[in-house]
Amino acid sequence: MSLKKAFLLIILILLADQISKLYIKTHFELRDRIEVFEWFHIAFVENDGMAWGTKISDFASFISDKTAKLSLTLFRIVAVFGIGYWLVSSIQKKASKTLIWAVALIFAGALGNIIDSVFYGVIFSDSINKVATFLPVEGGYASLFHGNVVDMLHFPIYSGIYPEWFPFVGGKSFSFFEPVFNIADMAISTGIGILIVFNKKAFPKSSDELEILDVEKEVEKEKDTTQLENV
């Protein structure tokens, strides 16, 4: 895959991600929900931490939420630069298309969520009990680098109750799939899934490695032949 094609894929994912988020922010109040199908809902939530709503301050109580949020955003930015370098390097080295597709998806998804974290606190008012305003005159709901990530896709495919004998959560209700996510999250998960499922295609052995393996096989064959002759 060429750099132009990878760039086009990234742009398309970013557009789909940001357009969906802009629409949700300017048409939904926080916690609003629309049931499209029984198994698919549009549910507006905001994530101010890591995956599953976890915060750095949950593990390090001495760090304030504001400092933890800034640290997380800066870490995401550094990570995106690293992923971007990996993508460009892979293209230049003519790596497998599978690897380039996967890295491009991960890069696009990570960048999509970083846009929220960096800018949304400044360009939107809050969505609590009201629909947010884009570029509010009175200022946004947070400072630069302290925005929340917008999530809206929910797939409650199955709901039930844990058996009473189940440890810790017996008798409690559950839903599968519970997390609410966005298009950027889908891109990241798809990219990682490709790397896991199609690992051999993403990281094929180089010609040099194959030559070394062939030489080793030939040496082994010669050893076996010699041993048989000696017998």
Q: What does this molecule look like?
A:
With 231 residues, the chain is an alpha+beta fold. It has 2 domains: 3-34 and 43-151 and 181-197, no CATH class; 207-231. It is built from 7 helices and 6 strands, in the order αββαααββββααα. The strands form 2 sheets. Strands 1-2-3-6 form a 4-stranded antiparallel β-sheet. Strands 4-5 form a two-stranded antiparallel ribbon. A hairpin with a 2-residue loop joins strand 1 and strand 2. Helix 3 (65-92) packs antiparallel against helix 4 and helix 4 (97-123) packs antiparallel against helix 5. The protein is globular, with a radius of gyration of 24 Å.
Which descriptors apply to this entry?
four-stranded antiparallel β-sheet, 2 domains, two-stranded antiparallel sheet, globular, 6 strands, about 230 residues, about 15% strand, about 55% helix, alpha+beta
Distance between the termini: 55 Å
User: β content, as a range?
Assistant: 5-15%
> Count of DSSP helices?
7
Helix fraction by DSSP (H/I, runs of at least 4)? 40-55%
The structure class reads: alpha+beta
What's the mean pLDDT score?
A: 87
The biggest sheet, with number of strands, parallel, antiparallel or mixed sense and barrel status, is: 4 strands, antiparallel
Strand order of the largest sheet: 1-2-3-6
In total, how many beta strands? 6
Q: Report low-confidence residues grouped into runs of 5 or more.
A: none
Shape: globular
Number of separate domains: 2
H-E order = HEEHHHEEEEHHH
Rg over alpha carbons: 24 Å
